[in-house]
Design goal:
This protein has 8 helices and 7 strands, in the order ααβαβββαβαβααβα. It is of the alpha/beta class.
Amino acid sequence: MSIDVVDLRSFYSQRLGAVARHFVGRSIRKHWTDTRNMRVLGIGYPGPYLGLFREEAERCLAFMPAAQGVVKWPTVRPTLSALVDELELPLPDAAVDRVLLVHALEMSQNATALLREVWRVLASGGQLLTVVPNRRGLWARMDTTPFGHGRPYSRPQITSLMREAWFTPVSWSEALYVPPIERGWFLRAATAWERAGGAISAPFAGVHIVEATKQVYRAIPARREKRKLVPALKPALAPAPRGIREAL
């Protein structure tokens, strides 16, 4: 079940949402350090994170699924967001260089079909970056945040899903080790939580951040079996009956 866009906007306007935006955005930026002259597409609710690339990339677009709803993005400039059918994106094949999925994969009714549609619009050699809730994390267990809605994933589940949709995971990171508790002393210690969790590779991070590349296969022509030609029999006249021969 998809979460409403109003709830997403409300979450990121709160202190806990600002903390999530900071740490998840920092991890996203470590994966994509340079997007100059690239076309970047965000799907789901990518607005809080696409701003990292808006001034650098050739163009940035935000596609929000119809079941979720859409808000204007960016808020003070000409809009770059659109309401779409996530399984039929309004783009031609190989149209973008980077795709960012946030609050999208775990909300989709058909995650494999969504990833294959992303595969279609992604250029050869393009990269996909997916932010998904960690099945073992605290954020997936509390529905007071958007990461507590939809289906969370483990690493093996994401790997299997990516491969089924013709993507190859190439790098991983985690974020949101801080518990999703909106209290002052928890939020003030958020940086310490992130450092400690990252240092020991703790399994309870709130989200997985997975970078994957598009698999491009060369078409292999089908082999045709050689047919054995059977010689056709030549037509032959049947001999006339004896009585007829004598009459002739």
